[in-house]
Amino acid sequence: MLLSPYPTTGERIRITLLWLWCGLVILFLLVPILIPVPLSFNSGAFFIFPLEGLSTRWYEVVLGTQRWQAAIANSLIVAFGTTLIATVLGTLTAIALNDEKFPGRRIVMPLLLSPLIVPVVITAVGSYLFYARVGLASTYAGLILAHTALASPFVVVTVGASLTGFDRNLMRAAAISGARPVTSFFRVMLPLILPGVLSGAAFAFVTSFDEVVVVQFLASASQRTMPLEMFIGLREKLSPAITAAATLMMGLSIVLLVVANILARRGQGKPAKGG
Amino acid sequence: MSASLPSELDRPALARGRSAAGTDPKSVSAALRRAEFGDRLRSLALAAPLLLLLALSFGIPIVLLLSRAVYDPTIADALPRTSQALGDWNGQGLPADAAFTALAADLSENQARGSAYELAKALNARLPGARSQVLKTVRQLEGAGGKPPLEVMKSVPFWSAPGTWPAIRTGTHSLTSFYLLSALDLRWNADGGIERVPPEQAIFLQVFLRTFFVAGAVTLATLLLGFPLAYLISSVPKGLAAILIVAVLLPFWTSILVRTAAWTVLLQKFGLVNDLLLWLGIASERLDLMYSRIGLIIAMTHIQLPFTLLPIYSVMRTIAPSQMKAAYSLGAKPFTAFRRVYLPQVFPGVMAGCLLTFILCLGYYITPALIGGASDQLISNFIANYVNVELNWEMAAALSFILLVFTLALFGIFARILGLDRLKMV
Fold it and tell me: Chain A: nearest CA to B248, how far in angstroms?
């Protein structure tokens, strides 16, 4: 496709240069995220290549010490709480917004997306200020609430996309057949949009699991999550345990987002935009 | 739950309308309106829980924070007598002795309540050097013996210095533009106009300019790296394109913190980047890339590259290759064909990618905090610092206010000329 049927020398040179440049860009994209993986299996205490030897000692630190275990537990509590609330409420909202008669749809959508646009430090500082007044600072509920604001836009968007392929006549058919609204939601609509809902849930989970700025302001010392523990570790003293934690987090988010994207595509019944 | 059903559930209502009134169009349309009104209520009820939750967890906190930028009752609450005494002062010279006496009484009361330090800090924000003077005066008032408070006040030169009383007077106004102006290195002058603060007090314009500079540099770098790759991916066969796009999505799906962590490892003095530079002969000795501007820009470019590339790619893949071929066969040189046929069509994608990256860069916090040096901290880092270290909420709020204005303005431009749909990337 790149070359015309009878390429000139100039064209060949241009295409070669393009491939070369793009090869370098791809190295630039991939090498940094792959580097922590071999380093995390290094038996030495330094980040220097060549590796001193293979070992899982840094994974034992991350998975075996009380500090990191508590952080992983906190991350899971907050991420599951966020996923549950964001998925349920986000799905309901997406269904409501899918109805053309929804009043003020053009205003509501930008408002729903605004947590993604407002710089996260502003969100974090604002939450800290308000939550401290109403007793939500340093509570799991506060962390989950703040994360739900950041995660729910993803659910609304993915479920909304899967609803565009949903034939509303099916709901009419269910109603005519005598199904109550709740029944027809669970038996007709939900099974069909389920891939979109699960995809939104995975996005919500990853959003919360990876989030560190809001947690930094809202969490108490005993509520540190895994990313916050990493952030603090990076500021204080660089330990190879960080590379192990980074590898674990990267693995989790990549697996979940691959699943989320496959589900989103299946839900839409056509290839998703942008890849 | 019932609201999940479309309006057709209300067909019975319509049917009733019809049977009661025969074919009277008026009552049918009335029934239809009723049914549609019910639909709207139901879809609102479905969306209400999330909207309420967002208002509570996100909307109120932001509004509350921004209000701190313009509303600060600390001084007014601490100096009620002084505010009253200054009510009829014309702002010229020194106020009447009554104001000095009132201030002495207010200061003593704050000392008795234990809030003197808080007041000193609040005044210091308005009036540099006021902290130590307030604390000194408070001690003198306490140990004055029989000396009248007015004399104590007059004996401290600070309270008779020009600029002191105007600052106290503006401080007693709870609604204030002081912090917003300060966030732009501006202040009110004695004549009621706005002026630049003296250069030695100016901080923030430089930080905003730095933030814009870093955002611009990163945007440009991502475009230079991303545009050719997007072009390549959009023109190779599908299978290869799928593999190449994974190379873009893998870093995209890794969190900013993890990627920043990876870069702190790479940018160390004995890290891989320095190894590479030495090996290539670009550098003759190991460079300090950590805590440097260039290290920060490299790491941010890596993080933002997919954000710039994906919108460009999503436009490029819609352009049929036959268009360029047609241009060639009509005699256009490759560059002309690219400039006149290809570029105008991908321009919206380029705009979307670049604007998105620029907007996101303005709010960067994690990466500058971990990779930037003291002189590479962006505006978000200053906001966090005012909250965590200085405990100056008003200043943090004012900086947030200005950052938010810039962000929303740029986002408004984005939505206006490109549409919200261009935000969808995955």
Answer: 7
Residue B193 lies in a domain: no
Instruction: Say if the Cβ atoms of B50 and A93 lie within 8 Å.
Output: yes
CB contact under 8 A, B46 and A36: no
Query: Is the ipTM reported for this complex over the cut 0.95?
Result: no
- How do residues B243-262 score in pLDDT, each as one tens digit? 999 999 999 999 999 999 99
Q: Do residues B294 and B394 both lie within one domain?
A: yes
Q: pTM of this prediction?
A: 0.88
Sign, CA dihedral A211-A213-A216-A218, equals negative
Beta-carbon contacts of residue A229 (< 8 Å; ≥ 6 apart):
A67, A68, A71, A245
Domain termination residue (choose one: B48, B70, B92):
B70
B375: burial class by Cβ within 10 Å (0-12, 13-18, 19+)?
exposed
The total of structural domains in chain B comes to 3
Residues of B with CB below 8 A from A238's CB?
264-265, 268
In B155-258, beta strands by DSSP E? 186-188, 194-196
Contact A102 B255 (CB under 8 A): no
CATH number of the domain to which B273 belongs = 1.10.3720.10
Query: According to CATH, what is the number of the domain A66-268?
Result: 1.10.3720.10
- Give the structural domain span for B154: 74-175
Residue in chain B lying closest to A236 (CA): B370
